[in-house]
Design goal:
The complex is a heterodimer of chains A (224) and B (477). Chain A has 2 domains: 1-35, no CATH class; 45-219, NagB/RpiA/CoA transferase-like (Rossmann fold). With 224 residues, chain A is an alpha/beta fold. The longest helix of chain A has 14 residues, at 47-60. Chain A contains 7 helices and 12 strands. The mean pLDDT of chain B is 94. By secondary structure, chain B is of the alpha/beta class. The radius of gyration of chain B is 26 Å and the shape is globular. The chains are: A alpha/beta (224), B alpha/beta (477). Strand 9 (187-191) of chain A pairs antiparallel with strand 9 (273-277) of chain B.
Chain lengths: 224, 477
């Protein structure tokens, strides 16, 4: 069998047989503990500083951020953004309870639909699971309430994020994911800014195949 | 299918030096990657420490690779995926084709994958009536032009705006012939529009993997365009092409490697999309593939374990080595004749297609050491190239002229007093002959040098003679 042949060849190269049981147990222990390595000092800040660093890094990577006081302010922030960008006001939204709880009817011109994105959808509204200050990165794990197509198929992606979900380093976001989602979801996207390519003459152009615009609406809930 | 031309490296390099378009592209892009990396590294004080961590993680994984591969497979299966173990390119091609045929695939979208290039998978699919569509912008034009990529992260590194325009006009004949390409954005927009329908129509999506994670059974891709995510999310079948050394133990290990990957590659702090895929669509999911297959390829890697070339298996394909290489910078990637160019290619290619075929590549180095100094996993690339040179010499694959000259040099080198006498006579003789102009515009046996530049005439004595004289002078004071 090919598998045995490959494993056999590796073991011949390593000049040993299969690992002894005690060493296997040690390696399994490492997998279960998944120890952290060096974490850069840049995100070791009090939480308000991490939130500011996250917002600054999103903007550095050509995304935009609107900070609002409460969930009730989100519809206005979304509607104003769409109007300012001259985008259609019929976004497709993730069927997440937090997003459903937003009083969208306060802006009746917004025509919100729920579901996954199709090729014809121009604007998506996604639920932000967590965000990483270190590089301005959103963590968007797939779930029935958080379809992956919303991250990749539309021209514009709007992510609604609670500021309390901003962490310093990737490792902290992974711990949140392990604790709250119980194992690895099918798909976890770490998104840092809008789509881009430098394949033409190594010059950066925004808007390759993914969203041309990434807009974060951040609800300041907590350590204001 | 592109036959390897690594054995014609000298002719390839010669042609590359005379290729005006290529030289224009190299001159334009040559330093941009270097500056971007330098600025990203300067922004992260822990970078050097993270390089050590990255090296150690990869070494730990390679030492226990059999264990981690089996753990990984268990996790993939638990998540509803399948692992197809493939010893070589033939098996891998057959595995991919079988999955596509079972899915009744007519078109297949592809994310950028160097393993895909190694397997020449597009050619194989085409031969069996399946249309592969490359979706990474650089790979897309490479496919239109029927070329190999010339760089492992920037496949179209060798092309200029006019090449893009020409290829697009030639291929997209359904679009108005009088449309204008005034800036790069016009190219990008046309590709986006064209590929959109391919993404939506594809039956199977094939991606590579930057990492495989044993802890969770995940495959990881890193892209800026989002094409890889469309490729693996929309079709009903997702195939991951990955070689066995992509393995890392945990998400935390992967995270540490990601911190050095983008900075070393494009000089970004983090790429736009870093995506972890684990198995097929889950109950209740509104999107995602119904089948998830990993085609796990050995193709020469296991034979490198336990040899002096094991270090090469740490490579995370960032391309920093070629971006900083004076040889790559002069001739570009195609001259290397196969899939992997630059210093990492000069070490890896002989391992994968044989030193007989690719023996010239490890000789195409000035040993300046720049590649090793920027490698995020600290691969001693010059040392590994030297090992290949030794093997090549041992196996009598070195050209006769080189062997003869080395033999001549060795004769003198083993006789130090004769060596000094001969070099002193040569230095004095040449110095006397060139005493008027101070340089030679032509010289027998050194035509290769003097064809392009003058040879300076020696001034004064040899190093040894001068050193001896100064030691004597010191002893007197």
């Amino acid at each position: 069998m090919t598998k045995d042949a490959i494993l056999g060849a590796l073991r011949r190269g390593l000049r040993r047989g299969p690992l002894p049981e005690d060493q296997q147990a040690m390696l399994r222990g490492r997998l279960e503990r998944h120890p952290r390595h060096t974490i850069p000092a840049r995100s070791r800040l009090p939480h308000p500083g991490q939130v500011d660093l996250f917002a600054a890094n999103v903007e550095k990577e050509f995304g935009t951020v609107a900070r609002v006081a409460t969930a009730a302010d989100v519809p206005a922030a979304v509607a104003d953004y769409l109007a300012a960008q001259n985008l259609p006001a019929n976004p497709i939204m993730a069927p997440h309870p937090d997003l459903r709880a937003i009083p969208w009817s306060s802006r009746p011109l917004l025509e919100i639909r729920e579901g996954r994105a199709e090729g014809t959808d121009m604007v998506s509204i996604q639920h932000g699971f967590a965000a990483i200050a270190e590089t301005g990165t959103l963590m968007l794990p797939s779930a029935p309430v958080r379809p992956t197509t919303l991250n990749v198929l539309t021209d514009t992606e709007i992510v609604v994020l609670r500021a309390s979900r901003v962490v310093g380093a990737y490792e902290e976001a992974w711990d949140l994911l392990r604790a709250e989602m119980g194992g690895m979801p099918r798909n976890v996207m770490l998104v840092t800014g809008p789509s881009r390519s430098a394949d033409i003459e190594q010059a950066l152009e925004l808007g390759a195949h993914g969203p041309r615009r990434l807009h974060v609406v951040m609800i300041e809930d907590g350590d204001g | 299918m592109h036959v390897a031309t690594s054995s014609a490296f000298k002719e390839n390099a010669h042609r590359a030096l005379g290729d005006a378009g290529l030289q224009r592209a190299l001159a334009r892009s040559g330093t941009s990657f270097i500056a971007r990396r330098a600025s990203a590294v300067a922004g992260l004080p822990e970078f050097e420490q993270l390089r050590d961590t990255a090296r150690d993680i990869k070494n730990h994984t390679l030492t226990n690779l059999d264990f981690y591969l089996e753990e990984y497979e268990r996790k993939v299966v638990a998540a509803g995926g399948t692992v197809h173990w493939c010893a070589d390119a033939d098996q891998a091609r057959a595995a991919v084709l079988a999955i596509c045929q079972k899915a009744g695939a007519r078109t297949v979208t592809k994310g950028k994958s160097m393993i895909g290039e190694e397997l020449a998978i597009n050619h194989h699919l085409e031969q069996h009536g399946i249309t592969p569509v490359e979706t990474d912008l650089g790979e897309y034009i490479i496919q239109l032009r029927d070329e190999l990529p010339s760089h492992i992260i920037a496949p179209a590194f060798h092309l200029n705006m006019d090449d893009w325009e020409e290829a697009f006009r030639k291929s997209h004949t359904d679009l108005p012939a009088d449309r204008v390409f005034s800036e790069r954005r016009d190219i990008l927009t046309e590709a986006r529009t064209k590929l959109r329908s391919s993404f939506l129509a594809a039956d199977v999506g094939i991606t590579g993997a930057n990492f495989l994670i044993a802890e969770t059974g995940s495959s990881v891709i890193v892209t800026n365009e989002g094409n890889g995510d469309l490729t693996q999310t929309l079709p009903k079948v997702h195939i991951v092409l990955a070689s066995i050394e992509k393995m890392v133990p945990t998400i935390e290990d992967c995270t540490s490697l990601l911190r050095v990957l983008a900075r070393s590659a494009t000089g970004q702090d983090f790429s736009v999309y870093t995506t972890f895929s684990t198995g097929a669509r889950r109950p209740g999911d509104l999107d995602g593939p119904e089948e998830y297959h990993v085609v796990l390829v050995d193709n020469g890697r296991s034979a490198m374990i336990g040899t002096e070339f094991q270090d090469m298996l740490r490579c995370i394909r960032c391309a920093a080595c070629m971006n900083h290489c004076p040889v790559y910078g002069a001739i570009g990637g195609h001259a290397y004749g196969w899939v992997y160019p630059g210093p990492m290619g000069s070490v890896l290619t002989p391992s994968l297609i044989g030193v007989k075929q690719a023996g010239q590549l490890p000789n195409a180095s000035t040993f300046c050491g720049k590649c090793e100094s920027v490698c995020p996993v600290r691969i001693p690339l010059p040392k590994l190239m030297r090992h290949w040179r030794e093997r090549e010499f041992e196996r009598h694959l070195t050209p006769a002229a080189v062997r003869w000259n080395l033999g001549l040099w060795a004769f003198f080198a083993r006789r130090p007093s004769l060596y000094r006498l001969a070099t002193r006579a040569a230095a004095l003789g040449l110095g006397w002959l060139g005493r008027k102009k101070g340089r030679f515009t032509s010289m027998p046996l050194a035509g290769g040098w003097t064809a392009a530049r003058d040879l300076p005439a020696p001034e004064g004595d040899t190093f040894f003679a001068r050193y001896a004289r100064e030691q004597r002078a010191k002893a007197l004071t």
